[in-house]
């Protein structure tokens, strides 16, 4: 297969960035890679379920932190290295959930546990508090302007404008996360990644340990996985699969009341003239014919559902596509950060919304990360997180065996079972059976897991519900892959086994998710 330089995917891993920059002597192409760095933290932010704590309280910032009540823009702006730091963010179906990835789109280059957080804080004259995490002051000010909050800008004796924001650095404690979650739900928080607000299973275990044991020595109990590690994200992706099935059930139930077979299937039949051929894929004896049919479908899919970067909803300008910005700093792009979804966006199961400030007309654009297939179809706006789930759901509506595949290195796609094997399908690249494509982008794969659920009408499965398929998407030796992982092979195997058992229990207790309506 022809090796492809990445034209759409982006990397938050420093080694991958250096690889791409060194791979080209062309300054323009290097600039494009730098722009892809910015989009790296956005492209994969739509597929893991990160739950908010049920007991959300607001606490004051610790008095021990260093504060500066009035900070100049250049002094406050997080460094490029800090801006590059990202965490996996994916989406969920709960109005009280937050996705962190990268988001699904869906990535897992994790933020170090001891990474300090840059906090900007503004207290309005009426006492209302607003905060921004790891955000430059000018972007925080734009966020406040979007909210309609007037911020008086003081000047010093040198007539140099300053920002009237408190600025301090903190380590993210449980108390601070609770404060940030409260501000988030009140729509008064801007953050560079929602991973900071996530409540992982390891957090809950650690909190339980704190309540049950007063000894601080027990806080380092090795039985508790590290925060944001493999076990945490495996659990969240499993929850995400269940959310996909719940959304699928809702669509089938709506169709049943309308005497339709499936809302998605009806939509597809109205818009894609070869839907019947897709339904008959399994009856085709010729593999070439099957792959050709899938290729035609994905080419059509990619046109129908274009990849969203940052296009302004008012004037249509795109910072990424504007040739005048190609040589500029990608960290100054139109992306401001993540904000809480509106009530309308929550109806589409959006777990977070990206906010953009157009560099041309200076208007604001919201990009809700929908988790409802119907909302994605109607909005026709998304990235690999939205489109991989939509493709997975469409394949199931067509009666095909399908899997949802999550790459811990910033991507998600689907697979279909034909001719006794699983075939790779990437809706963003219109790629069919091209397992080596990601290695051709320079990725160093760590974890790639496939998530499966029986087709509707079946209560048993002939295939693993969760399977580690990393070695099917890279030619790297297994020993090399293991060295990249933070967990041992035994720990990974045990975590997958436990997650599989929990998934089985959920499918059994919520059998309506895979039964006919």
Protein described:
The protein has 517 residues and is of the alpha+beta class. It has two domains: 60-87 and 115-199, no CATH class; 230-513, Roll (C8orf32 fold), CATH 3.10.620. The protein has 17 helices and 15 strands. It has helices spanning 14-22, 27-43, 73-76, 80-84, 137-147, 174-185, 201-212, 230-257, 263-271, 275-279, 287-304, 343-347, 373-379, 384-397, 437-440, 478-484, 489-509; strands at residues 50-51, 97-98, 116-123, 129-133, 166-171, 189-191, 335-339, 353-357, 364-368, 402-407, 411-418, 421-426, 431-432, 448-452, 466-468. The strands form four sheets. It has a six-stranded antiparallel sheet. The chain has a four-stranded mixed sheet with strand order 5-3-4-6, sandwiched between helices. Strands 7-8-9 form a three-stranded antiparallel sheet, covered by helices on one side. The model is unreliable at 1-113 (pLDDT under 50).
Helical amount = 25-40%
| CATH domain topology of the largest domain | C8orf32 fold
Proportion in β-strands: 5-15%
CATH architecture of the largest domain: Roll
Mean pLDDT: 79
DSSP summary, beta strand count: 15
Structural class: alpha+beta
What's the CATH C level of the largest domain?
A: Alpha Beta
Query: Residue ranges: pLDDT <50 for 5 or more in a row?
Result: 1-113
Strand order of the largest sheet: 13-12-11-10-14-15
User: How many separate helices?
Assistant: 17
Rg measurement, Å: 23 Å
What distinguishing features does this structure have?
single chain, 15 strands, 17 helices, globular, six-stranded antiparallel sheet, alpha+beta, 36% helix, 517 residues, four-stranded mixed sheet, C8orf32 fold
């Amino acid at each position: 297969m022809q090796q492809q330089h990445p034209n759409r995917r982006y990397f938050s891993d420093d080694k991958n960035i250096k690889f791409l920059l060194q791979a080209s002597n062309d300054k323009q192409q290097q600039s494009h890679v730098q722009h892809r760095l910015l989009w790296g933290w956005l492209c994969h932010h739509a597929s893991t379920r990160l739950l908010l704590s049920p007991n959300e309280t607001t606490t004051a910032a610790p008095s021990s932190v260093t504060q500066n009540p009035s900070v100049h823009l250049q002094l406050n702006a997080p460094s490029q290295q800090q801006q590059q730091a990202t965490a996996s963010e994916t989406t969920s179906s709960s109005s009280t959930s937050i996705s962190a990835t990268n988001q699904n789109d869906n990535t897992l280059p994790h933020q170090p546990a001891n990474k300090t957080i840059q906090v900007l804080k503004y207290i309005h004259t009426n006492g209302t508090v607003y905060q921004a995490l790891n955000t430059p002051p000018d972007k925080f000010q734009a966020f406040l302007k979007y909210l309609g909050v007037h911020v008086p800008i003081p000047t010093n004796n040198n007539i140099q404008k300053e920002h009237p924001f408190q600025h301090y650095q903190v380590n993210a404690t449980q108390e601070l996360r609770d404060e940030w979650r409260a501000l988030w739900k009140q729509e008064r928080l801007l953050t560079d990644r929602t991973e900071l607000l996530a409540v992982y299973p390891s957090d809950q275990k650690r909190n339980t340990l704190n309540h049950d044991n007063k000894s601080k020595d027990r806080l380092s109990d090795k039985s508790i996985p590290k925060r944001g590690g493999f076990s945490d994200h495996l659990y969240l992706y499993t929850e995400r699969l269940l959310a996909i099935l719940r959304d699928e059930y809702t669509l089938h139930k709506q169709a049943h009341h309308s005497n339709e077979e499936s809302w998605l299937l009806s939509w597809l039949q109205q818009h894609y003239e070869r839907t019947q051929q897709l339904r008959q894929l399994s009856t085709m004896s010729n593999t070439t014919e099957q792959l050709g049919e899938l290729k035609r479908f994905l080419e059509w899919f990619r046109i129908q559902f274009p990849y969203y970067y940052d296009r302004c909803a008012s004037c249509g300008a795109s910072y990424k596509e504007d040739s005048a910005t190609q040589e500029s700093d990608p960290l100054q792009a139109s992306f401001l950060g993540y904000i809480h979804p509106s009530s309308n966006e929550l109806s589409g199961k959006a777990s977070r919304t990206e906010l953009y400030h157009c560099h041309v007309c200076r208007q604001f654009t919201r990009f809700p990360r929908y988790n409802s297939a119907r909302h994605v179809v109607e909005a026709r706006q998304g990235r690999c997180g939205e489109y991989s789930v939509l493709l997975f759901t469409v394949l199931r509506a067509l009666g095909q065996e399908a899997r949802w595949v999550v790459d811990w290195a910033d991507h998600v796609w689907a697979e279909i079972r034909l001719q006794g094997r699983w075939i790779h399908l990437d809706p963003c690249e219109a790629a069919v059976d091209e397992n080596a494509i990601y290695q051709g982008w320079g990725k160093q794969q760590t974890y790639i897991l496939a998530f499966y659920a029986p087709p509707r009408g079946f209560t048993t499965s002939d295939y693993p519900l969760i399977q580690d398929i990393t070695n099917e998407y890279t030619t790297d030796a297994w020993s090399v892959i293991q060295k990249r992982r933070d967990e041992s092979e035994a720990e990974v195997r045990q975590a997958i086994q436990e997650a599989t058992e929990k998934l089985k229990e959920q499918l059994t207790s919520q059998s309506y998710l895979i039964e006919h309506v």
